[in-house]
Amino acid sequence: MQRFAIHSRRSAYVAVVVLTLIWGNNWLVMKLALAHADPVSYNIHRTGVAIAVLFALLLGQRRRLLPESWLAVLVTGFFQTTINLGATTMALAEGGAGRTSVLVFTMPFWTILLAWPVLHERLRGSQWLAVGLAFAGLTLVVEPWNWQGALAPKLWAVLSGFGWAAGTIAIKYFQRERSFDMLNFMAWQMVLGLLPLLLVPLAYPVTSTDWGVEYAALLFFTGAISTAMGFVLWIAVLRILPAGAASLNMLAIPVIALLSSMAVFGERLTALEWSGIACLGAGLAIISLRAWRANRGDRSVAAEAPLIEGG
């Protein structure tokens, strides 16, 4: 991790900008990669690359190789890798990159709701308004009354956001009594989360992968750079910046994904979807600003901050 050491707030904010650009454009790159592989195969390939990079870092730094809690990595891996990453690729295979990213980024709202029964963190004040705006926006974007549209990819994207939130809550839950080496934790949750996906091709026919230089390059970006090294850089940022301040970059990621998808794929949204996105954006802004203000006052709002990259 020394190569990714960040020693000042200025360099931390530069790193946040870099991460925002990487994760914002990652949706476009994933969509391009899915033109070469079945979503199940692509997810296995991408996660495998990320696992290789993370374990290479663990070996290179001579850090602990075995997980500190098998139960913690099993539960987190199921939600974060099996559900979140698996549902994301299914959504992208059938739907637009921009629309998918917006729905996956309902994650903070699911996090707040899950934190209530699991971490006993009750909704307070503006959080109620944020959640209300989120579900109004979610309804407008998904349009559950319109069964003639592409409903399946929207539901996959919502499931992805839920899985991301559940994975975040799982980490918070298991860290209440002990602290984990997050590099080790992320590597192992990917390993255990990948195992169920390896069984899918046995029951579900998948198309062959179009291996080539282009697919390899796209896989390197999504697996090695965005998923593995992006996480390492994110952890380095959190050593300098409060989680609330660092998580403000979330606001820009779906915007970048939406604009890039519109430019490259010609993705277009209806007036209802734009209205829904506006509601979701307003709710996300309330949550991010609340987290930032609370961090300035040294009050814990960690459950609202994304601990791991989604999508």
Poorly predicted ranges: 299-305
The secondary-structure element order is: HHHHHHHHHHHH
By DSSP (H or I, 4+ residues per run), the number of helices equals 12
Class by SSE composition:
mainly alpha
Helical fraction equals: over 70%
Count of separate structural domains: 1
Average pLDDT: 83
Most strands sheet: none
Overall geometry = globular
Strand content: under 5%
Give a verbal description of the structure.
This protein is an all-alpha fold and 311 residues long. It has one domain. Helices cover 72% and strands 0% of the residues. It is built from twelve helices and no strands. Helix 1 runs antiparallel to helix 9, helix 2 crosses helix 9 and helix 4 packs antiparallel against helix 11. The longest helix is centred in the C-terminal third of the chain and has 26 residues. About 2% of the residues have low confidence.
